[in-house]
Amino acid sequence: MIYQWNKPLWHKLLGQAGRLPHALLLCGPAGGGKMDFARALAARLLCETASGEAEACGNCPSCKWFAAGNHPDFRLIEPGGDETGPEGEGGEVEPASQKKKSEQIRIDQVRALDDFLSIGTHRQGARVIIVHPAEAMNRATANALLKMLEEPSASTLFILITNNRRKLLPTILSRCQTLNFPKSPPEQALVWLRESSVPHAEELLSHAGGMPLMAVDEAAGWAHLEGFYRDLAQIEQAGPIVIAGRWEAQLKESRDGAASVDKAAFVLWMQKWVFDLISVKLCGAVVFHAHKLKEVRAAAARASISALFDYYSDLLRIKAVAQHPLNPRLFLEDMLSRYARAASSGR
After folding, report:
1. What is the CA radius of gyration of the chain?
2. How many domains does the chain have?
3. Residue ranges for the chain with pLDDT beneath 50
4. 176 and 292 in a common domain
């Protein structure tokens, strides 16, 4: 799907038909539709009937294979769990289904492309490889991919997707043509959210920093987000330990076997909240909480700017360990106790 705000990029890219590079880097903030754009581009290049700037037809054999996820000339490289785990005491190997999904793209995933690239295409057309997110590669994996980018195969397009190009090796960047995805215009994003029947569209778009797809993702957690604001307003009266207990209970709530909210989400929400407290004190404006401007101003008035800066630095360190198997209650108590001190530091 090509979202309305990304169509100028589509027309610019497809307008150079026959002159596409062998490697594209799609970069920009998360939630702008880069992955959907990449999949639409892959489908278009593999399509057997589309031409010019048109999208894939959706009806030819290649389009049907692509939609079914089994096109022989397409590969999607994403983080995934190891095929096998460490041996147990009895010598048994832990199955992949029982392992936590890896957050990195493994080097063997990239090396497996050698066989894919060494033979001709099955449909005598293009061959497309999407790497998402590109920053999930460590140095060894990136270097393995680099060798392929330095000696591109005919009719092959690599599409790398990143939310942060600064995390990529300069040598990778130098081999790719960069396509920058700007933030969608607020009015256009808001219209799209409302047409998509997303509730609380304006508030969610604000909290998502203006990124419409991120706003969609956050819609399911709206009740938790509203509870987050209520709890922060009560932290002085209830205390961080009580609030931490409430949040821990939310971590344990599950839906289809997955937590409805996790520690990383609480850290991210806190980062956005504190960022806006700092922003209000410095310039009187907010980025993420236009719908909570009165509450942000009231909270900012009770805190000193130096304490808020110190706490934001703490949050960066806390974020780095949010996915670790730490005691969730102690994790939340520590984060909230630090916030409580910062929030009352201006008195």
Report:
1. 23
2. 2
3. 81-98, 256-257
4. no
Strand partners of residue 158: 23, 129
pLDDT tens profile 8-18: 999 989 887 66
Residue that has been written with the tokens 């692509």 in this structure: 66
Residue 195 lies in a domain: no
Contacts 24+ apart (CB under 8 A), 163-168: 163/27, 163/28, 163/29, 163/30, 163/133, 163/135, 164/27, 164/135, 165/25, 165/27, 167/135, 168/25, 168/134, 168/135, 168/142
Pairing state of beta strands 74-77 and 127-131? parallel
Name 84's bridge partners: 95
Q: Is residue 185 part of a domain?
A: no
Looking at residue 33, its pLDDT comes to 95
Residue whose token pair is 């048994």: 92
Q: Is residue 159 helix, strand or coil? A: strand
Give CA–CA dist 342/312, Å, rounded: 10
27 shares a domain with 152 = yes
Q: Which amino acid type is present at position 335? A: M
CATH of the domain at 241: 1.20.272
The closest of 109, 107, 145, 105 to 22, measured between CA atoms, is 145
The first and second tokens of residue 328, run together, are 């969730």
What is the extent of the structural domain holding 154? 4-180
Question: pTM to 2 decimals?
Answer: 0.85
The single-letter DSSP state of residue 160 is E
Q: What is the pLDDT of residue 253?
A: 67
d(CA 78, CA 316): 25
Helix, strand, coil fractions of the chain, as percent rounded to 5: 55, 10, 35
